[in-house]
Design brief:
Blueprint lengths: L6 H13 L31 E7 L14 E8 L2 E8 L10 E7 L15 E4 L10 E10 L2 E9 L7 E8 L6 E2 L21 E9 L2 E8 L13 E5 L8 E5 L2 E5 L17 E5 L4 E8 L2 E8 L10 E4 L4 E7 L16 E11 L5 E12 L16 E4 L5 E5 L2 E5 L2 H7 L2 E2 L12 E5 L5 E3 L5 E5 L2 E5 L2 H6 L4 E3 L2 H5 L2 E5 L3
Parallel strand pairs: 2-19, 22-25, 24-26, 27-30, 29-31
Antiparallel strand pairs: 1-21, 2-3, 3-4, 4-5, 6-7, 7-8, 8-9, 10-11, 11-12, 12-13, 13-14, 15-16, 16-17, 17-18, 19-20, 20-21, 22-23, 23-24, 27-28, 28-29
């Protein structure tokens, strides 16, 4: 955290530099060319190996606080067609003097970002004056779950050894925040080990998967951290405040713990200031952390027992704090052209040390991981929900809720689907066929205006009567009793 004496920044700067040396990861090399034979006794060619593809970089500085001496540690959400970002900075009009959290929005990760109040960065959270976070709030991680925004952050009352801890706040809009958990820290140093790096606990990153809040964080006193305090530990809980039903990741997987300060026995990556997201197509976690050549993404499977794909590095200048572009629940955005095999990886990170000798000049960098082995199971194939793919019957298959709706007309599939893919992922062959949409199928209109296709005496809701027109389906207005007499089998609206 950067304050007048920058306890969290100065110690981190030294530690981050030393953490860059071990385990530098490079993009996987492209596979050698292969030839395909039609002989039945020859094995099929191997699947392409995952490779880094489509390197990209923003044109310059994407965000900065007004007259701020530093800008780093961003949290980045793709929401409602906009990119929202919160980051650590310092503004003169916010009390008390110390680290503040700023917020701004843009049409793309490449900026420019502008705050709702018209400034380049609006202060949305500052020190509480009297609490554990009395002077500094920094390192934001933001989620939106069930209509509520959750902000996890590093807080400190001043500049003293092991003085950093993790707090949480909630908001209805991502701008106006209320401290939760009684204003107390939810994760503090474990004090397993004393090291020269006296940062403590902080730099949280949180995501939401299958009803669990997963928290990744730094603790320089953790037993499994490196000699310089580098390491990333994982807790998960059903409760967003991590006050109840908490499990810690250890050598034997996740195990219940009485509180969040239990010994830190396992680190998932040797790094500081990491960010992460969940990749549904792989059923895996992707952890972004800085290494010698840029931001390395390390992948762990759902149970943290193995690495489903090799690490990949987003090259370019960096100084501190990668923020992954994530969905509101902390998941990887889907590639519209290949949601199973292509994973967009975009980060915003500080690129230089500014005049205050602190990280600033937030920039956008990214690439795609191509040929990823996604959608291998029905569970991971849920990323295809809403997509349509070619069908073996010269029709189009629309994936809806883990099932297939076979549509006769391409024009109808275009209207119903998020997008029609050029290739059919093999996993679609294993999904059950729920319904067929033949041309001319009857359509009904309810008294409230809803429209549905009547398929085998079951209603499938569609967005409007334009779908029926494209399908040459006659629309019959019915009374409520007739409408309610049919079973509603599915919803094809998007």
């Amino acid at each position: 955290m950067a304050g007048p004496t920058r306890l969290l920044g100065t110690l981190l700067a030294l530690a981050t530099a030393t953490a860059c040396a071990p385990g530098v990861a490079e993009p996987a090399a492209p596979p050698p060319p292969t030839t395909t034979s039609t002989r039945p006794d020859r094995p099929a060619p191997p699947a392409p190996r995952p490779v880094a593809d489509r390197n990209r970089q923003g044109p310059g500085v994407v965000a900065a606080g007004p007259e701020a001496p530093y800008n780093y540690g961003p949290a980045v959400l793709a929401e409602g067609g906009r990119i929202r970002m919160w980051w650590c900075s310092q503004v003169r009009h916010a009390d008390p003097p110390g680290d503040d959290l700023l917020h701004a929005e843009s049409a793309s990760p490449s900026g420019p970002f502008t705050a709702p109040d018209g400034s380049s960065g609006q202060s949305v959270l500052s020190g509480s004056v009297t609490g554990f976070d009395g002077k500094h709030v920094c390192d934001p991680s933001v989620l939106k779950v069930g209509g509520t925004y959750y902000l996890y952050y590093t807080g400190a009352a001043g500049e003293h050894a092991h003085g950093n801890a993790v707090g949480v706040a909630t908001s209805p809009d991502g701008v106006h925040w209320t401290r939760d958990a009684g204003g107390l820290p939810i994760v503090s140093p474990s004090y397993d080990t004393t090291r020269d790096n006296t940062y403590g606990a902080g730099q949280p990153s949180v995501l939401f998967v299958d009803g669990w809040f997963y928290l990744l964080f730094t603790d320089t006193t953790g037993r499994a951290a490196g000699w310089n305090g580098a390491g990333q530990f994982v807790l998960r809980a059903r409760d967003p405040t991590f006050l109840n039903h908490v499990e810690a990741l250890g050598e034997r997987g996740f195990e219940p713990v009485a509180d969040t300060r239990r010994p830190r026995t396992r680190s998932v990556v040797d790094a500081f200031s990491a960010d992460w997201m969940y990749v549904d197509a792989l059923k895996a976690f992707a952890i972004a952390h800085e290494t010698e050549h840029g931001t390395t993404i390390t992948f762990w499977d759902h149970d943290f027992t193995g690495n489903p794909v090799p690490p990949v590095t987003i090259p370019g200048r960096w100084r501190e704090g990668p923020g992954l572009v994530r969905t509101p629940e902390g998941h990887a955005p889907l590639s519209p052209e290949d949601p199973c095999g292509r994973i967009p990886l975009d980060v915003v990170r500080a690129t230089v040390d500014g005049a205050a000798a602190a990280p600033t000049d937030l920039g956008h960098f990214g690439l795609d991981l191509a040929h990823a082995p996604g959608c291998r199971t029905a569970a991971t194939a849920r990323v295809l929900d809403g997509f349509a793919v070619p069908s073996p019957e010269n029709t189009v298959d629309l994936v809806v809720g883990g099932e297939v709706v076979r549509v006769e007309r391409r024009s109808v599939a275009d209207r119903l689907a998020t997008r029609v893919l050029e290739r059919r992922p093999p996993i679609v062959d294993e999904l059950p066929l729920a319904a067929r949409v033949p041309a001319g199928a009857k359509a009904l209109r309810a008294p409230d205006g809803r429209t549905a296709l009547l398929l085998e005496d079951e209603l499938w809701l569609v967005a409007d009567e334009e779908v029926a027109r494209l399908n040459s389906s006659p629309v019959t207005a019915v009374d409520q009793r007739t409408w309610d007499g049919y079973e509603q089998a599915g919803d094809l609206r998007r």
